[in-house]
Write a structure and sequence with these properties.
About 45% of the residues lie in helices and about 15% in strands. The protein has helices at about 5-15, 20-25, 35-45, 50-60, 75-90, 105-115, 135-140, 165-180, 195-210, 230-240, 255-265, 300-315; strands spanning about 65-70, 95-100, 120-125, 145-150, 160-165, 185-190, 220, 250, 275-280, 295, 325-330, 330-335. The strands form 2 sheets. It has a 6-stranded parallel sheet with strand order 2-1-3-4-5-11, sandwiched between helices. A 6-stranded mixed sheet has the order 7-6-8-9-10-12, sandwiched between helices.
Length: about 350
């Protein structure tokens, strides 16, 4: 079993007391420059690292942040995590990432584990199954700083960062309408998620602007956001089997967009001749398809950065934070040949 070198190991090797070694490593004035150099040189030679648990006990801070996301492989979240790390590491914080795989139970377990690891705060994007956030409320009420990003909850008063989901959905749907499509379906995630609600509202607003009726049969929810291919396939088949089939689909997520295009390719549905598409996606994988998706791109990296800055403000404030920011960052529509 690997055992990292300790203060005691350095002390024995150099014939010094552990307290002298500790003070030398902390660069205190009581220790001579010669002894400090001797201790530091030896510590470096054996790759000594301070015990983070000991530092946590002393400083009452672990200098670590827990991140809760659905899936690291999701292109949006991988970019958001890069944004989180770009701020956190520069400020001396470590990141502990956990994946819910869109499971409420897994989210609860992960959050409890992160709290038991004494993280200083949490950056949370809710799972598709999560409709009850009592596990987060309980922690927040006990003093755990929490910042939501992307999939947020209004039940906890804290900082929140989201993309302009309404405008992004409006822009994508309007693009389809202006291209000549009128029977536009909507493929989306779990109906209670904030992103689903905001994107549905944007989709409906665009239809209303052009006096196109909203048909409930055209709105399909995939409860796990496309994580399970059969869920996406069932929704797409349901749309294609309608008596009055849609002539376009606005898709509200990365995995759903990829899954939908794979299914249409398998069914030999020609895009955009038989069915046009536009959707939210941060994935470059879509560029590998013969038909390139017109897509709404979220500022994932910037959202990760903003959420981290907000959390660090809470962690490093000398006084309790009582005013919280609800920040919305603009999306961008990229028009391609779908």
């Amino acid at each position: 079993m690997f055992e990292p070198p300790t203060l005691k190991d350095i002390a024995i090797a150099l014939g010094l007391s552990t307290s002298t070694v500790s003070r030398a490593l902390r660069d205190t004035y009581e220790i001579s420059s010669k002894t400090k150099k001797r201790v530091l040189d030896y510590a470096q030679s054996i790759n000594y690292q301070p015990n983070p648990n000991a530092l946590s006990l002393k400083e009452r801070r672990s200098k670590s942040i827990g991140v809760v996301v659905s899936e690291v492989a999701n292109h949006y979240f991988s970019q958001a995590i890069s944004g989180i790390e770009s701020i956190a590491y520069d400020r001396g914080y470590h990141i502990i990432i956990s994946q819910t795989h869109e499971s409420y139970e897994r989210e609860k377990i992960n959050v409890q584990h992160l709290a038991s690891r004494s993280v200083d705060g949490l950056l949370v994007s809710l799972s598709a199954e999560t409709n009850d956030i009592s596990h987060l409320k309980e922690l927040h009420d006990k003093g755990m700083p929490i910042v939501f990003f992307d999939r947020v909850s209004n039940e906890i008063e804290t900082h929140k960062v989201r993309a302009d989901n309404f405008q992004g959905a409006f822009d994508a749907t309007e693009h389809l309408i202006k291209t000549g499509y009128k029977r536009i379906a909507h493929l989306t995630s779990s109906p209670h998620l904030s992103i689903s609600i905001e994107r549905l509202e944007g989709y409906m607003a665009a239809l209303n602007k052009y006096n196109i009726p909203v048909h409930s049969d055209y709105i399909k929810n995939c409860q796990h956001g496309g994580m399970f291919p059969e869920e996406t396939e069932r929704a797409v088949l349901d749309l294609l089997q309608l008596q009055e089939k849609p002539d376009a689909i606005f898709i509200a997520g990365d995995r759903l967009s990829i899954g939908c295009m794979e299914i249409l390719k398998k069914l030999n549905v020609k895009v955009p001749d038989e069915l046009a598409l536009a959707g939210f996606s941060n994935s470059n994988v879509l560029d590998l398809f013969e038909i390139r998706l017109s897509s709404v791109r979220q500022p994932a990296f910037e959202m990760g950065q903003a959420a981290t800055e907000m959390l660090l403000k809470i962690l490093e404030s000398k006084y309790p934070i009582t005013e919280f920011e609800n920040r919305t960052i603009a999306t961008k529509l990229f028009i391609r040949n779908s």
